[in-house]
């Protein structure tokens, strides 16, 4: 798949970032290094969700992406899952989920 705005080709393999949510500083550094290594290997697709560690995986990703241009990567987001197997599928939540998850 190619991004129509800038021609960037989506890598065939993405990096799931759910495991990057409940980490201490040493592990956070390793997660950031893993994201950089993925980019160096040609992987340009990261996947996360607002419910991974209550948004903590997104903070790790944000730190890892410092210095990268937004046009260098794809970021897929899942949202709507709450705790205890509850889901919010309202239109307001779905339309605003990307703004909440990309703080």
Automatic annotation (TrEMBL):
Domain NADP-dependent oxidoreductase positions: 12-83
Pfam families noted in UniProt: Aldo_ket_red
Highest taxon in the source lineage: Bacteria
UniProt cross-references to SUPFAM superfamilies, sorted A to Z: NAD(P)-linked oxidoreductase
Name of the protein in its database record: Aldo/keto reductase
Source organism phylogeny: Bacteria, Bacillati, Bacillota, Bacilli, Bacillales
């Amino acid at each position: 798949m190619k991004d129509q705005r800038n021609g960037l080709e989506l890598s065939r393999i993405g990096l799931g970032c759910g495991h990057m949510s409940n980490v201490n500083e040493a592990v956070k550094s390793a997660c950031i290094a893993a994201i950089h290594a993925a980019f160096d290997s040609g992987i340009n697709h990261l996947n996360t969700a607002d419910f991974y560690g209550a948004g903590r995986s997104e903070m790790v990703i944000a730190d890892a992406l410092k210095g990268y241009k937004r046009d260098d990567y794809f970021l897929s987001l899942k949202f709507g899952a709450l705790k205890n197997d509850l889901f919010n599928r309202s239109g307001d939540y779905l339309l605003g989920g990307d703004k909440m998850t990309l703080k």
